[in-house]
Predict the structure.
Amino acid sequence: MTEVAEKIRAKAAELLAGGTVELVLGYEKGTVPLRTTPCFVRDAADVGRLVWNGSCENNLAQFLIKRPGRAAVVAKGCDSRALVALMRENQIQRDQVFIIGVPCTGMIDRRKVEKILAGRELVEAAEEGGRLVLKGHGFTESVPLAEVVHETCATCRHPNPVVYDVLIGEEVPPKDAPRYTLVERLEAMTVAERDAFWAREMQKCIRCYACRQACPMCYCSECFVDCTRPAWIGKTDDPGDTLLFHAGRAYHLAGRCVECGACDRACPMGVNQFLLLRKINKDVEDMYGYSAGLRVEDTPALATFNPDDPQAFLTE
Amino acid sequence: MKKIKGEDLTALIDRLASTRTVYAPVLEPGEAYYAYRPVTAGREAALDFGNTRVSVKQLFLPRSERLFSYRTEGENKVFDVPSTTERRVVFGVRPCDARSLTMLDGVFQNDRYADPYYLGRRKNTVLVGLGCAAPSATCFCTSLGGGPFDTAGLDVLLTPVPGGYLVETLTDAGKALMEDASLTDATAEEEAQAAGTKAEATRQADTLPLDGLKERLDVAFDHPVWAQIPEKCLGCGVCTFLCPTCHCFDVCDAGNSEAGSRERIWDSCLFPLYTLHASGHNPRPTAKERYRQRVMHKFKYFVDRLGCTACVGCGRCVVNCPVNLDIREVTKTIRDQITGG
Amino acid sequence: MARRKFGVVKNLMSFIGVEEPRVDFAWISASEGTRFADTIRKVTDDVKALGPKKGLLAKAGEAS
């Protein structure tokens, strides 16, 4: 990891000193254990701030939307797909971005670690030999990193950036773990069971919109929930309205979501709205053979059609 | 000082639950965080918790609350206003959260307006606090003028000791609540130990130097540092919603001429549309203006208008911000980069 | 493209607990009067058999 960090710093210094870009967007050490934070470097002398580790969870693509001037960005596989999707939608111009691609072995899910800690405070965390070492007052434990990476990383088919100007680090094999286990479980439930599942999830939601704000593809200047005339859905935390918000957001992401998991990681309450995105992505793939953000030339699935498209949903 | 054994506190909660609604910290099912929920038995209370994810303000200024609803009956409109007379007790309120309520009191009651919803709940709720023997690394309540054993806003304060808690009743409501409890006298040893724990914890929670911050903010509105500080802010509501002192709200109406309702919901000054005018103009168009407003409000405007900093050092914003934008770093940057007035 | 959207929406609605018969799409031309009436009759019967939506989305679409 430190080798990759050194190379990122060197590249960043070279780009800034040479005037290729005015800004390098990467990650720097966070202020609490198991965190990094987005880092905006403008001076070659500051590149020492840049790090690379299993806590580089934020999707930085969104900070480039409609940004004037040239910027470099550290991009994992999912981040690069977001960049491609945003380029396809004209939110980012390819020639304004220098992509420092970094193959990714998976980012840690803080919520999984929180559950392991069960209320104990984490004082220090370190990645050592494929394990995550957790230290606190009166305890030291370690777990395999594979058990604490985010669910989307554990099933990631695109860990290597799909587009880049420079690639730093060794390419990583994609995972072929089953991606839609929970989706299928829900599909097999009765309506009453599904209702109960969603009721339990949605009553946790406080409508903070962290999911929406963290998502690089949610960039509408007026989100449908903010519209008051007409008020499409209620703005209270009523679980029914809340479910419609998450379902509506998922629907607006059909053919656009790159499954980076930023939404799930941003949520302070552990609402499983990510499951709706998994469902949407599964359907778009099954029905239209499309995954977002793989090639800039691809037409997004819901922006085109095929005469042979399935129509099993028709009433007759 | 008096003491209550753990099992007697459990029994007290059991008895209270039959005459009032008792709230206590409870682990959210399937999650690793706590929330204040009604309990019917003392053993449901998880008093070994750190702090709840959402602060106790949720019980006085809920995320969504119905202000009134109306329906049509013949020629007349019939209004229905929810009542706030429910008698409640909240166990396990941390001193930071209790202190925040004293600040919210200043917002929701002044010479021009008294909010009946918030005040009704305040009047009918007794708060039993639980001191923090081991503050987190992200706690800085002492630095803001509070402390892990601060009594502001509480009716009773419990201090953990082996086998139970020391009990300080602070108000008449607190005394009345504990009348029914099996209290014994604490030993001199227990009192000394508690005093030591309190001194150490208070010291531990004093991690954020704030001297000179207000003076710098008084002259810092146009300083260029604001362009950089919040560049990574996503514009979500996590910090504001979890914050014990944040209180901005929106009012939304639903319905038609026949029936409808008016709701009050939490709002956030960091939402991009927070200051959007009907004309289409937005005086706080980017994260820079919005985040500056948040810092100014908490560390300057609230001080100017109500005499205290609108932050109690609970650390929730630090722990839960999706991009780890840390208010402690922000205050440090301001103190380092801005020269005072 | 509307066909693609319908495909996604119908599955999503079912996924969040809105029973399949409640979400219906049919392409019927203005000149297919009988077919239109038959389809409406069938959908109405299907939805009536399900009854009002209970549970989480029971209030969705209500005025207050």
